Amino acid sequence: MEQKGNGQQQLQIELKEETAQGVYSNLAMITHSSSEFVMDFISILPGMAKAQVRSRVIMSPEHAKRLLMALQDNVSKYEKSFGTIEMKGRKDTYMPPISDFHGEA
What we know:
Blueprint (H helix, E strand, L loop, with lengths): L1 E2 L5 E2 L6 H4 L6 E6 L4 E7 L8 E8 L1 H22 L23
Antiparallel strand pairs: 1-2, 3-4, 4-5
């Protein structure tokens, strides 16, 4: 960590090229225990019977809640700039209809 003039430390974050390219995911499955949240980011392709987990992120409940708050803040900012994000399918679930799934990019 690098020391700032006011006594605070600044964290330097390294982003490797292969990580910077990211992975595409159009579905996330989340499970949890008392000590951790496990988020699997999945890619579903139309017409394929099998989906592939592209990335798994494991974090503490506290960090999961911080992520939730950060996502809520960012979605709010996005919608202020670009309009409301419309949810397709059923309104009472976070899961898209898998049998009727049409991948969109």
